[in-house]
Amino acid sequence: LVSNAQAVTSESAPVRWLEEVMHSLHDEFQSKQAQFGDPVKLRKFFEERVFKYWALDKMARAVVGSAWRDMTPSQQAHWQRIWQQTILRYFMIAMKYYDGTLPTLEKSPECVSAQRCWVRSHIEISGHKTVDLDFFLVKRRDQQWKIADIRVAGISLVLHKRGENLAVIRTKGIDSLLAISEKKNQKALGDVSG
Fold this sequence. Notes:
Helix 4 (73-94) packs parallel to helix 6 (174-189). It contains 6 helices and 7 strands; from the N terminus they run H-H-H-H-E-E-E-E-E-E-E-H-H. By secondary structure, it is of the alpha+beta class.
């Protein structure tokens, strides 16, 4: 039998992991902040330091739902690259509002299994508005936790994007989704391509 102390310890593991990641990235970001006026260096920071904590491959599949199986291997690979650029675009936009405040994590995650947990948090934006910001963590085969979704004010990024993407696929097809998404990313990230 697992003792209550062991159960609490294993349940709090995703919270501890997320807290360590956030503090590590925050400290690194703060120490290099002067460099990040250059969008190419900021992009490099996200791609090299931040993305390794995200299950971008899993997210890319999830945001197209069952249409993933309808994609050719070439389309799947293309979509994986587009999704990474989409997340980069979202990070670059979010940085305009980032004031150095870290989210406050709740200590008890909502685990649907030992490998899948929502870690709830909230963050104060601009010193006056508190927003719920929750992270869905999955434990990969290598036993490492990764972020596989976020909820902002209760809205899941994965579910929201899946609805949008499947609507485009139903009306215009997979190739149109790829082209539309790539064009959005190029428009937003063109000047930070490095």
